């Protein structure tokens, strides 16, 4: 093994990204759990809230998250059981259905978001200058679009991804 390859900056970059993601996930999970949600459940709720008509096709929800289609079904089942989302049939395709954020789901998000934004600011955005944050967000979108081309599936052109 070449010592130069082990110290390659590309290895460092991906390692830093992984460490940051794991560290932020730990910070977020604790705060979100205080509201009776798992991190992936919160992600589904926030994606629905940011989508047109507060709904997404189940397949689009899968493309936007790290979940498989069966994984999305299980998460939506739990959220539906808790009254935070409901399902509706797609009017143009009988094989598809939508996950829709309910009023109770919106209220749960309203309870979670102030603390979540505090955690984001403390451990992420607040550590960066506005220029650093803008540059990083642009860079992350370039990478996201390359590695997850379906990540904005079902999102309108005016909704931030």
C-alpha geometry: globular
Give the name of the CATH architecture of the domain at 8-112.
Answer: Orthogonal Bundle
Oligomeric status of the shown chains? single chain
CATH class of the domain at 8-112: Mainly Alpha
Radius of gyration: 18 Å
**Average pLDDT figure:** 91
Question: What is the H/E order?
Answer: HHHEHHEEHH
* Computed structural class: mainly alpha
Report helical residue fraction.
Answer: 55-70%
What are the segments in which pLDDT stays under 50 over at least 5 consecutive residues? Answer: none
Q: How many individual β-strands?
A: 3
Main beta sheet? 3 strands, antiparallel
CATH topology of the domain at 8-112: Arc Repressor Mutant, subunit A
Lateral strand order in the biggest sheet: 1-3-2
In percent, how much strand structure appears in the residues?
Answer: 5-15%
Organism: Rugosimonospora africana
Domain HTH marR-type: 7-145
InterPro entries: HTH_MarR-typ, MarR/SlyA-like, WH-like_DNA-bd_sf, WH_DNA-bd_sf
Protein name: HTH marR-type domain-containing protein
